[in-house]
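Hey all, quick one. A colleague (J.T.) asked me to put the zinc ion job into the tracker so the inputs and the structure tokens live in one place instead of scattered across chat threads. No bug as far as I know, just bookkeeping. Sequence used:
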Amino acid sequence: MLRRDSCLIGSLAENRVNLEISKESSKGPQPWHFALGSVESRAAARTKLARWYDDYEGVTLIMSIPRPDTDTSRVSFGPWTKLQDGTLLRIVYAPNVWLKPDEAIPMCPDCGTLFRKTREYPGMVGYAANCLDKHDPDRVSQVSRAKLRT
Ligand SMILES: [Zn+2]
């Protein structure tokens, strides 16, 4: 019985090691798998950097209720804030307006994208900004870096 327990513990430890190895190998070749400064190591480092956003866990909360200092006509991204449980959170303000059906569809003052219709009631139509991706500072910097690479 004792021997069986020790085998079980050993087996669990071995499985844990295998799990960690499989987690790492699922992310592809790592820079430290190759000689320092080699072409392979640098390629792995670039790949790891490019995948950084894939591992970046965060919650984006999109709201149409402005904070007191918010320009209500524009999309605005708040900073990433780390919560007590380690989750990263950022609040995005997305303009939302109610207009009469015959009024022109509003557009983003920064990129010119027309707002999308969200709801329609007799005598009222709701519109919301439809260009959050264009103004996401993380996405913009990622696209800029991708353009620099090409
Ligand atoms: Zn826009």
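Adding what we noticed when we looked at it: The CA atoms of residues 100 and 124 lie 5 Å apart. The beta strands are 58-63, 76-77, 81-82, 88-93, 96-99, 116-121, 124-128.
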